[in-house]
Amino acid sequence: MQNQMQHWLDKRAALTPDRLALIDGKEELTFRELRERSQRTARKLSGLGIRQGAVVGLLCTSSADFVALVHALTYLGAILMPLNTRLTAHELSFQIEDAACMHLIYDEANGQLAEEVLGRLPQLLLIQAEGLSELQETECSLTAYIDAEAVQSIMYTSGTTGAPKGVMLTYGNHWSSAVGSVLNLGLSSTERWLAAVPLFHISGLSIIWRSVIYGMTIIIHRKFDPANANRAILEQGVTIMSVVSNMLARMLEDLGGRTYPPEFRCMLLGGGPAPRPLLESCAAKGIPVYQTYGMTETASQIVTLPPEYALSKLGSVGKPLFQAEIRIAGERGGDALPGEAGEILVRGPNVTKGYWNRPQATAEAMKGGWLATGDIGYLDEDGFLYVLDRRKDLIISGGENVYPAEIEAALLQHPAVKEAGVTGVADERWGQVPIACVVLREDAQLSEEELREYLKDKLARYKIPARFYFVNMLPRNASGKLLRRELPALAVQAEQAAEQS
Amino acid sequence: MQNQMQHWLDKRAALTPDRLALIDGKEELTFRELRERSQRTARKLSGLGIRQGAVVGLLCTSSADFVALVHALTYLGAILMPLNTRLTAHELSFQIEDAACMHLIYDEANGQLAEEVLGRLPQLLLIQAEGLSELQETECSLTAYIDAEAVQSIMYTSGTTGAPKGVMLTYGNHWSSAVGSVLNLGLSSTERWLAAVPLFHISGLSIIWRSVIYGMTIIIHRKFDPANANRAILEQGVTIMSVVSNMLARMLEDLGGRTYPPEFRCMLLGGGPAPRPLLESCAAKGIPVYQTYGMTETASQIVTLPPEYALSKLGSVGKPLFQAEIRIAGERGGDALPGEAGEILVRGPNVTKGYWNRPQATAEAMKGGWLATGDIGYLDEDGFLYVLDRRKDLIISGGENVYPAEIEAALLQHPAVKEAGVTGVADERWGQVPIACVVLREDAQLSEEELREYLKDKLARYKIPARFYFVNMLPRNASGKLLRRELPALAVQAEQAAEQS
């Protein structure tokens, strides 16, 4: 990759102008049309003051417009901040302020949420996506060459501290991710990638880049629905789909006795561990599941297990893509031996250079050119990666990352809460859900319902604990560190005590 | 692409150890086996004094060993100089001396030629490829990380001056070429590329890199034979084949009424213009021809025409691959208009940084970051490239580049030759062949046979003119520049005069 590249959508529209770029319900756009729409949108956004280097929030549901807006920002050299529409105004405002974002583009479906954010951040300039069609275009020069080193997107992700940090991804990161993926998954001239994961997550955003780089059609589902997803695979020529376990399980249930056509060649399964029975059901139905491991910081998958190993290496997420590397940090420095568990370190041109305005967090995560993921895993004798524990006690619920520390911090803001511990427990539908153990201040009175109500404005719905347990003390080690892994047992005790009382 | 990458063969052998890397007749090697053989060979070559940065000549016929030798040199960080086995000892010696090459690896089939070279360059260390198996391995450290900026190969190509120049290609050039090609041609997990073009040419060498980067099998034919090539496509699951027009025409003739199976998806046609009837025959037979334009300096194809345009854009070589760009230099500086002919300039991460030890030739060829190809062409309204005249009066005979200036220089060394002009004329079998017009010194006597005999040691057989015409003067412009395009007419006149006398 050289540092200057022709704008990807320009290049793609020059190479295959009449190929379909995307299908969003009844709307179909060729690459030529997508380029025209994106450039028109860019000229309108320029008229609203969006300039090179500006961070622009995007609070929109997946759609053709979403894709055009993403490309429009690249034509202006602006930095995209895709926002999770499931977050609360409280959470969104934090990210928007932290990223010094001045413009928020939102769609009708998220209008109320955008207004709530505006209530908290009155300086913010709101731009209604649907309203852009009525605006005049402004003369402005559009980016013809992309700088691979330039930051394309900032996406927020939490960590141990509970405060979300903005992961910077450059054009070069996205490019390398797309190239690494194609060398692993292959590519046909009739490729159709079903995007039923949100485009505001890296799993969805990465499909947008692959589409222009590969010349591939995206089928956009605004909302995941197992029957619709199955219909697209059965009737619309889908060849690849990105899923998390929960989506796949629901699709299998809906699929029943039907089988996918042979052109469907890759079910790319990310976002956390896959249950063994699910993988076995897929194998029985001949569904080609590729398990993957990745995160926002790696611009999507960095390790992938091809289907020929799906059962023989069950539980493994595979091997690092071309150009990417992993290491397991050994206990005594150096690399762990095969089978020995340690922190997973990753390196490659798809890996972030760091966190937005967080030099210290960046320095802590980057160890000699390697990104310390915080996840624990091991490599087997054949070099296959097995992930044992997700980073920083991460809970993955329905494909969304939930950080215990973030929920604990929200609980601790309540005046009656003295201590709080959150962990994930297995859930049939969502894979995992968070539960909370709470120690109240002396003499304080608080019900589960009151706590739930209190959290509603502070946390996205999927982050609110499924159950609350009031306990006398939390399990801690000698130095006072919370032992989250002992919380489930504590919760069971609390439940039994409550039943007996 | 980052600057440091894991060694490609190491990475590939880790990802797909049991996939077939190559088939050479009855010999089949997996990537694991190819890596083992290449590393063993590297340790033996190290024992013979081959070190990082050394230029090593390779005078071998295509084979599994050829591929292993190429990888072995990368493990030592040595620079590969693949040599054309059809050249004379005279021509080879020039290249070997020019590149300061100290080691020449040759195989039995080219033993006599290697000895002749040794006769001219007694300092050269000859290494017999077949003899390596008896040598001991030496302990040495093998390259684990490839530097994308490092020169991987030097391949000689002639120009207007007649003196061949060494084109330097870095690992990054080869990587970018492979990536640009996969984004255009796609990739399947059962890809098999038939290499019946010589591996010492860029068309063959690039297949070696694609094989390790894609995880794809190469089927090696030591010598092109139309029946064997057809048999491989019909019976061995070949999906892609690289050809020049002459090869394709002979394969069509051999094919007769048979048709290729559907898994054969790409006939990659390079090395000069393709005759219209040939393309029409291929279309009638459903053969998916991709016309391409490229040269050693661009690490193989840089512009490719997909088959859907094969007839509607007949005569075009297509559009530049992802990451690559072309421009047509206009007469008044700047870019030519659509339809306006001018010199073809190319740019991209696959383009050479220059010629080995030729700063002046490099500076002349590189104009503001663009490589001036010397070829003349135009872009149509849709951006498709049409090549009108090959660079520097280049003659392409059976896929081999023949430079008139080089043949003229050889002719002028004969004491009886006063002037010489060489050009290409159409030939049914080879596409083009060179012919020579010669002006003898006053009172000199020389027959065609004597001239032919004189050139035998100086020029490869395919460079020796098919016909010689003795004339009184050569066509020149006002400033004395030879007008090669007028030579065919002069030859016809000379022929008629000879018949009448």
UniProtKB/TrEMBL annotation, chains A, B:
Its EC number is 6.2.1.26. The keyword Transmembrane helix does not apply. Pathway: Quinol/quinone metabolism; 1,4-dihydroxy-2-naphthoate biosynthesis; 1,4-dihydroxy-2-naphthoate from chorismate: step 5/7; Quinol/quinone metabolism; menaquinone biosynthesis. GO terms for molecular function: ATP binding; o-succinylbenzoate-CoA ligase activity. It catalyses: 2-succinylbenzoate + ATP + CoA = 2-succinylbenzoyl-CoA + AMP + diphosphate. It holds the Pfam family AMP-binding. InterPro entries: AMP-bd_C (IPR025110), AMP-bd_C_sf (IPR045851), AMP-binding_CS (IPR020845), AMP-dep_synth/lig_dom (IPR000873), ANL_N_sf (IPR042099), ATP-dep_AMP-bd_enzyme (IPR050237), MenE (IPR010192). Residues 406-481 form the AMP-binding enzyme C-terminal domain. Keywords: ATP-binding, Ligase, Menaquinone biosynthesis, Nucleotide-binding. Residues 10-356 form the AMP-dependent synthetase/ligase domain. One of its GO terms (biological process) is menaquinone biosynthetic process. Converts 2-succinylbenzoate (OSB) to 2-succinylbenzoyl-CoA (OSB-CoA). Belongs to the ATP-dependent AMP-binding enzyme family. MenE subfamily. PANTHER family: LONG-CHAIN-FATTY-ACID--COA LIGASE (PTHR43767), NONRIBOSOMAL PEPTIDE SYNTHASE PES1 (EUROFUNG)-RELATED (PTHR43767:SF1). NCBIfam families: menE, PRK03640.1. This is 2-succinylbenzoate--CoA ligase. It comes from Insulibacter thermoxylanivorax. The lineage of its organism: Bacteria, Bacillati, Bacillota, Bacilli, Bacillales.
